[in-house]
Amino acid sequence: MLWPFNHFRKPRLAPAGTIEAIYGMIVTQAREPIFYRELGVPDTVNGRFDLLLLHLWLLLRRLRTVQGGAGLSQALFDRFCEDMDDNLREMGVGDQTVPKRMRAFGEAFYGRVQAYDQAIDKGTEALAQAICKNILNGAGMDHAQRLAVYAEAANADLARTGDPALLLGSFKFPAQLREGETS
Q1: Predicted model pTM
Q2: Which residue has the higher pLDDT, 158 or 96?
Q3: Is the pLDDT reported for residue 40 higher than 70?
Q4: How far is CA 25 from CA 14, 28, 67, in A?
Q5: How far apart, in whole angstroms, are the C-alpha atoms of residue 122 and residue 127?
Q6: CA 128 to each of CA 1, 11, 53, 99, 164: distance values in angstroms, whole numbers, following the listed order
């Protein structure tokens, strides 16, 4: 039976399964052990959060250029917020504290997006500095440079990915730097 008020609801631009699949790819890529073992990302809640934001930013940056990408971008951001809310509650954060923490997540997201957007257009060194500050807590510029090279390669790979593949979640993040590899 069709619900009579469905025509008042905005149509979903991407099926929920596509959003889950894409968000799952972002989370999976951000959890790759090499980032923590070889590239100095702290294996902490904050380190994982920062790497998740880096990968989410890379994809949202690419989706800005895709017709129909704004809706998918919003759905992915909403899924990210839902995930952060769920994680806070699983960690035992109280109902009254969750909105404050979510606001902090939002500020972190928008601050990093702005920093990374400005930096990537200036080159590897500027991106490495932004990554060093935001992911590596200001230490480990050599690791930051390798992460910047990875981010630029991921950005280039996503730029070569066709729009339909992006919208359908039929793409993969590029292979990260392999263990022991230097750039």
Answers
A1: 0.85
A2: 158
A3: yes
A4: 16, 5, 21
A5: 7
A6: 55, 40, 15, 31, 31
